[in-house]
Structure formats: C-alpha cells, structure tokens
Amino acid sequence: xxxxxxxxxxxxxxxxxxxxxxxxxxxxxxxxxxxxxxxxxxxxxxxxxxxxxxxxxxxxxxxxxxxxxxxxxxxxxxxxxxxxxxxxxxxxxxxxxxxxxxxxxxxxxxxxxxxxxxxxxxxxxxxxxxxxxxxxxxxxxxxxxxxxxxxxxxxxxxxxxxxxxxxxxxxxxxxxxxxxxxxxxxxxxxxxxxxxxxxxxxxxxxxxxxxxxxxxxxxxxxxxxxxxxxxxxxxxxxxxxxxxxxxxxxxxxxxxxxxxxxxxxxxxxxxxxxxxxxxxxxxxxxxxxxxxxxxxxxxxxxxxxxxxxxxxxxxxxxxxxxxxxxxxxxxxxxxxxxxxxxxxxxxxxxxxxxxxxxxxxx
Length: 362
Ligand code: NAD
Ligand code: DAU
Hints:
This protein is of the alpha/beta class.
C-alpha cells in the first residue's frame, strides 16, 4: 500500500527541488545543509521509509515552509506523478536507493525495484514535467575493483561486481539514455564511501562505533586489506550541489574523498580515537565478490565545478564518533529487532566459526 501525503503549496520566490530518499543517511545531511542556507531551495522529500529511512531525522523541519515530506515509493508511478504534479519541481536530486552491498547479496529484488525500476519512473516523470535538471546520485562501485595502483575516471568502463553496484549501474545507464534519447538534462555524480552523522549502523564505520562502544567485537571481512576512498558526507553533499548548479547536462562527475585507507588501518584509527583496544577486531569470512580497492580521480569536479573535499578522515572520524556518542538514543533505535535479526543472520556464524582477534596485519 502506498500512502502519499500531499505537500503544502510550494513557496513562491524559491526554487523547488524534489529530492528522493532524504530520510536516509546522505539525504538527511543534504536537506540539513540546504535548509541552513537562507538562499537555498524549497524541498519535497519523497521517501517510502524503508528500514534505512527515519522520518524523525528531519522532523524538526516539518514546520519549515521550505521543507515538505511525502511518503511514497519511487517504484510506484502513481505516487511519483502525484509528487511531481503537486510540487512542480525545477530540479530532481535522486538519492533514494537500496544501498547496502551485503543485503543485495542475500536478495537483489528490492534493489532492482528501486535502483533500476524506480529510477526509470522518476526519469519519465521528470521528462513529462520538463524539469531543468535531473541529478542521479551514483557511486564509485559501478566501476568495479582496482588493483594496487590507478584511479577511476569518468570514462573508465563500468564493471560492477555486486548486485547493488549492478543495479546502480543500471540506473546510471537509464539516466544517460533519458538524456541521449529524450534530451532530459541529466547529470550523474559518482561518490566514494561516505561517513558521518545519521549513517545506518549496517555500514562499517557506524557498525564499528556501535560495537566498540559496547565492547563488542568488530567483524573485519577477509584480509582487511581492501581499500576504500573515504569522503565526509558534508563534502559529498557540497559536491552534489556544485554539480547540480554548475555541471553540464550529459556529464558524469566523480566526487572522491582525500583519504584512501585499508579497512584494517581504518578500524585501528577508529579504535584509537575511541580509546578502545584493537583486540576487538575479528577477521571473518570475506564478502563474496568483495571489491579490493576503490579510488576516484575527481579532477573534472575540481576543474569544472570548483569543488574539492575539505574534511580529512582523521578530523571527520573524530567528529563522527562524537556525534554517535551524543546521539546514543538514535543508534539504540536503529538496533531494533529487525536489525538484530539481520545482524545475527549476517554475522553469527562468521563470528562463531572463524573470528579471531587481529594481532598483526595479514
Ligand atoms: P540509505 O540506505 O541510508 O538511505 C536510502 C533512503 O532511500 C532511505 O531513506 C529509504 O527509505 C529511501 N528509499 C529506499 N527505497 C525507496 C523507494 N523505493 N522509494 C522511496 N524511497 C526509498 O542510503 P545512503 O547511504 O544515504 O545513499 C543515498 C544514495 O547515495 C544512494 O543512491 C547510494 O547509492 C548513493 N551513494 C551512497 C554512498 C555511501 O557511501 N553511502 C556513496 C556513493 C553514493
Ligand atoms: O563506495 C561507495 C559505496 O560505499 C556506496 O555506494 C554504498 O552504498 C555504501 O554502502 C558503501 O559500500 P561498501 O560496501 O564499501 O561499504 P560498507 O560500509 O558495507 O563496507 C566498507 C568496507 O568494509 C568494505 O570493504 C567491506 C568492509 N566491511 C564491511 C562491514 C559492514 C567489513 O570488513 N566488515 C563489516 O562488518
């Protein structure tokens, strides 16, 4: 069943952006950033509130005339049409997605529904309503995996390795096709691994913070030598605005962070910030199809958008730890029974069967 809350009439004088999936991690940070700017747009947040979406992340803004929430599934054409017809957006920023690689390995169907089918439904509505810009928020994972050297550029071939990455690549290709075939002004951004406030604790950094805070073990997949290119969510959000406002339709922009770190090193840094022992780290069975290394060459975004990441990992991670410590109730709520079931299913046999404390690098 789909419930659609009719948005209040839009403000006059402001630009209107329909933004999908803002009750999730990056969308929440994006809306907070836009509303802090008095010159920013009016926003309609279209979100169906999956396990990863929390309406209360933005509840304090529901009386703000520039923020509107609409409960709806982007995979439902009727709900999407209602949102477009009532809000009449100038631009669309499309965050809504199933976002967790491990869940896509268990069952990819919802990833196809939202990341592929939902994206096409939004593109069709954007075309019918002649939006001026459609920004598809994508990921470095569409490029696949790197060896020890080199970086992905926007013209690197797509070679996704997980069902999640393949579904995002599908969305990107449909967005590209809507631009080429129908002239929809589409821009695609590909961000690297985000971290910061409001991230759901299935992802490595908040999972590690939550477990270490409670002196629980932290599962590290495989050798722990897989490298991720970390970007603070605020830097990513600034990059998305820069691409929307200054990017060229039809173009892709990589938005990579400044820090490339192996997972084991990352956990060691995090535990040192928290004053916890690295003996909490347990090596467990690897993720199937686990990409070895991501690295983004973001020269195009630096040169054409005037954007660069500003927050280094050491500083951003300390602030993130502090945020989760100050917001223990938020984290507690995320650890509901459905999360506990997920955690058991994902980790119990791995931790019981083979988890060993990590004493030295593999
Ligand atoms: P998230 O899982 O935290 O949030 C996803 C949001 O989308 C939730 O609010 C959820 O309720 C909503 N949603 C899911 N399916 C929906 C549907 N069918 N209809 C309407 N709403 C739906 O995700 P995130 O980490 O904030 O990622 C946001 C976007 O950024 C995704 O497109 C993801 O692929 C991309 N991205 C994420 C990262 C990262 O490191 N997290 C990096 C690069 C790109
Ligand atoms: O690169 C961008 C992508 O980053 C986004 O597109 C995805 O939406 C986002 O989930 C993230 O994907 P990752 O798979 O890289 O993130 P995750 O936090 O799941 O894992 C980060 C690394 O840590 C990865 O190498 C797997 C490893 N890992 C993860 C978990 C959850 C562990 O070692 N143990 C864990 O328990």
